[in-house]
Amino acid sequence: MKLIDALELLKRPVPERAPSLRAFLACGFTPLHLQTFFAAHLRTLHPHSRVDITTGLFGDLAGNLERLSPSDLDALAVVVEWQDLDPRLGIRSLGGWRSTDSSDIVKSAGKSAARIGGILKRLASSLPVCVCFPTLPLPPLFITRSEQSSVHELQLREMVASLASATSGERSVRIVNGQCLDELSPLGGRFDMDSEVMAGFPYTLAHASIVAELLAALIHNPGPKKGLITDLDDTLWAGILGEVGVDGLAWHMDQHAHVHGLYQQMLTSLASAGILIGVASKNDPALVEKAFARGDLILPRESVFPFEVHWDRKSGSVQRILETWNVGPESVVFVDDSPMEIAEVGAAFPGLECLLFPGNDYRALWKLLKRLRELFGKSAVSEEDSLRLRSIRDASAFRKHSGSTGGSLDDFLRDAEARILFTMDKQSGDARALELINKTNQFNLNGRRLNDSAWLGFLKKPGAFLVTATYEDKFGPLGKIAVLMGRQEDRRLAIDAWVMSCRAFSRRIEYQCLKYLFEKFKAEAIVFDFEATPRNGPLQEFFRPWLDGVPTGTFSLSRRSFFEKVPTLFHHIEEDVRVRIE
Amino acid sequence: MSELNDRLIRCFSAVFPRLAIEDIPAARLESVEEWDSLAALRLVAVLEEEFGLRIDLSDLQELSSFKTIERYLLKRGDVS
Fold this sequence. Notes:
The complex is a heterodimer.
Chain A (H helix, E strand, L loop, with lengths): L2 H9 L8 E8 L4 H14 L4 E6 L5 H6 L8 E5 L2 H4 L15 H24 L4 E4 L18 H18 L4 E3 L2 H7 L8 H7 L5 H16 L6 E4 L10 H4 L13 H15 L3 E7 L2 H8 L11 E7 L3 H12 L6 E5 L2 H10 L4 E4 L5 H15 L6 H20 L6 H6 L4 E7 L5 H9 L3 E2 L7 H8 L4 E10 L2 E14 L2 E9 L8 H12 L4 E4 L8 H6 L1 H4 L7 E4 H7 L6 E6 L5
Parallel strand pairs in A: 1-2, 1-3, 3-4, 4-5, 6-7, 6-9, 7-8, 9-10, 11-18, 15-16
Antiparallel strand pairs in A: 11-13, 12-15, 13-14, 14-15, 16-17
Helix pairs in contact in A: 1-2, 2-9, 5-6, 11-15
Chain B lengths: L2 H13 L21 H15 L14 H11 L4
Helix pairs in contact in B: 1-2
């Protein structure tokens, strides 16, 4: 982005009632153009928000961080440069570059790094913290020639790497990827010495824009796509199965088919991180079965579900896979080597990202693999990620069985051997709970999304509680599938958020959630902060028996009324309560 | 109006968003409230980027109005 474009973007009016995004940009130098670019990039990513950026004092990064009041902020961006660790690592200081100073510089930088690390950890318990560690070249202060690394320089780099590694373990900390920065902003084009000396701003405009863009992207933190649908012939493997047969398929280097092996390896990696992998192939189903029975396939058969293998249109296959996964096309990527198939699926699902498999072009494959990581990247793999595919298979089996037993739903649920674990906690570390609140649409009390700061703020309120439900039955575990967030006000509960994964429908878990709340808190009434959304119809229907219609706004459900109409529940209940209930 | 003049007006408009377009050619450091030291640095950076040149920050004092900046750019000869 050019500076003039950033300034013009920031001139655009923001609607009066736009929600505000309040971010603090912490750096030890004059923020100048970095602040402008940072605001502009955030504005690009949050076009309907008012972006307010505040900054601190020149030359005092640690102090600026220590003085912060996290409750006034939605996010914190921190830019650490070498001179923040010791002023002698910058060029504005004349503190000495004697050979005997090097050890002391390293020592004092270590103390600063420890101080900054401690503050970042503390702040990360209250708001998302995005950090960019030193990006500028070190000045030529060490005794070695430029082509030789000095031991002190290596010690400094090791110290920064340790600091980054230690802070990245905090749930709310996101670190700018140095490799990504190197690709976008080559080292030689980053430092503007004139500007540093005259204005206290060390970055070239191009570098400032890139640093700002990456920090804004970390704050924006979009959720990953959920599933990938792949073609088989000349995509997952080299060769047309119907022509070369099962034994003629190839994906190894000695068969000149390494691109397919790497692609399989990437899909296996995605599957291991909870990404759903499905197959849409115009092929003979029996042959595909045999191909997946080959023991040397890198992508194992159990990582793929469902298989749509026939000779019909691929858009139909994609439609059925989306239904099985119960996700929208905007959450899915389709990969095929045929431009015609890409065009057919793309036309049927405009929101679905279609990527052409590049054949034997390794440069294009590298781009494809990087693109897939961008689309599916996540900070950590949760327990639910590892359960997702299995629970979708189990849900499919559950639906099949519940419709085919011939008995009543009560009979079926009685025999399902269902267990629910309710966990009550006020800790902010439950990333899955926040993820459910921000991703669930159909069974969602009001559709409101929470950023990290609002989430952390809510849990600190007096009387606030967070209840999660983890479900398992004889068909398999579903993992953590429901979240209730609310406040206790004497014998009344106020529910601010209630979501349940659509994978958990038809098991009466929602009834058990309310029963648990009424009994655990000895509540006489529960008040629901309901708001209709275009997609929360299932939740609205759930309340129909008590309201004689669907809810229209905030409403209250009494204990007596609830227990009059609750159906028989068969779950075995376990609980893990980590907070005191009044 | 020359092309250079148009581009310069765009630069001023970006750095001083409250300044009406018709008032820009008469803009001077003393008459524009927002023209402080930070705005001056921002203006220099925008000019460098827009005209593909490097401006010595010691020339800042000279660049104190739309007219002087226009003359400075014409004099430079390396404007892209």
